[in-house]
Every structure is written in C-alpha cells, then in structure tokens.
Amino acid sequence: MSQAMLDVSGVKTYYGNIVALRGVDVTVNQGEIVTLIGANGAGKSTLMMTIFGKPQAREGSITYMGEDITRMPTHKIARLSIAQSPEGRRIFPRMTVFENLQMGAAITDGTHFQSDLEKVFAFFPRLKERMHQRGGTLSGGEQQMLAIARALMSRPKLLLLDEPSLGLAPLIVKQIFESLKTLNEQDGLTVFLVEQNAYHALKLAHRGYVMVNGLITMTGGGRELLAKEEVRAAYLEGGRH
Fold first, then answer.
1. Where is the ABC transporter domain (predicted)?
2. Does the chain have fewer CB atoms within 10 Å around its N or its C terminus?
C-alpha cells in the first residue's frame, strides 16, 4: 500500500470533563477503504468529528497527507480535499437536490461541475429523477444518497462517511456500499467509514478497526475481522442485515 493519507495518533477527545476518545491510533492509506465498527456510543462518530476539527483533539495528533491538521479549523480542513458525510444525513431540506449538489461543489472552482454532476447521477440515478425536488421531501435512502453525492461534488481525495446505512432498507444499503466499492476501484477514492452494520462494512473494507469505549481494541483485514469469533459474537449475531 502507498503512504498513509490519514494518520490519527494517540488522540484524546473530551466533552467537558468526560473522556470520549482515550488515545486512538488509526491509519488510512491512500486508495484504501478502512472501516471503524463498534457499538452505539463507543466513540466512532466522535472520532469522525475530531478528524474534521469539531471537537478538536485535546491530546495526540492528526495528520493528513503529511500535514498536521490537529488544530486546524473545520472550514480549512474542508478545503484540503477531505469531504465528510455526517451521521443523520444533514442535507439542506429546503433546497432542491440540484442546489444541495451545488453547495457540495462550492469549494471547487466549478470547471468540472457538469461532468461531476453527471458522474454522481450515474451512481445515483434516483437523484437525477428528483433533481428539482426539495431535499426534505426525499425518502431516507434518497437523502443518504444525496449526502454522499454532495460530499463527492467537492472532488475529495478522502471521504469520511458516518453511518451511511443507518435506518435504511437492506436493498438501499447494498446499493450504497456497491457505489463506494466502485468509487474506490475506479476512481481510487480513499474512504474512512464509520458503521454499525459490521457485516457490510467489513465485507467492503480492506482493513477494519473495532472500537470499544473510546479505545481501539482490535484491528486487521476486513475479512479477517469478519471471521473472528469475538467480532461475530459482538456485532454479527443475527446481524446480516
């Protein structure tokens, strides 16, 4: 694998006096899909938000393409070709699909807007059909597609995805994960994925990390973790959804 694109080292994050991350080490290499799994409340989303500068890490360091971004404000991080699709989809509900995608492209110079638009519509044809519909009127699956498409419009090298499968029908989940696989294989997009659906996430990922109570407790190849008895017992019992 090529160089580390994202390197999280000894990161501790607090909410007031409560320790949310207790010294986390995670590496994402260029061209990889890396997933972070764990139970609800383990600190997965906190790590994702800490990488993006809100909240900032109190200890440890975060480097992206060799540059220290630990203390960098969120709006500057967004300009470094890192895109985030946060948990809960957070699209602009009053704007149309097209306007949401324009917002995603706002940090680029706009020269590739049309070709990028065609590309995300090829991945998510449903969005093309709904182009002039307000974001808030879309189904949950369509909103998730829009959140990912909006992130892709900023032409990222690294995509941070937080719980893309949350609350979605199995068929839509499958479609979203297949799109991620294609983006990775065809475009070389690097993906760091936080996901409660361990089965889909580990099947997709080159490597995975398991988080428990703000600590990384296990790491390995995606399929390797999928085969581990303790991972299966904790995250996959009855859970091939």
1. 6-238
2. N
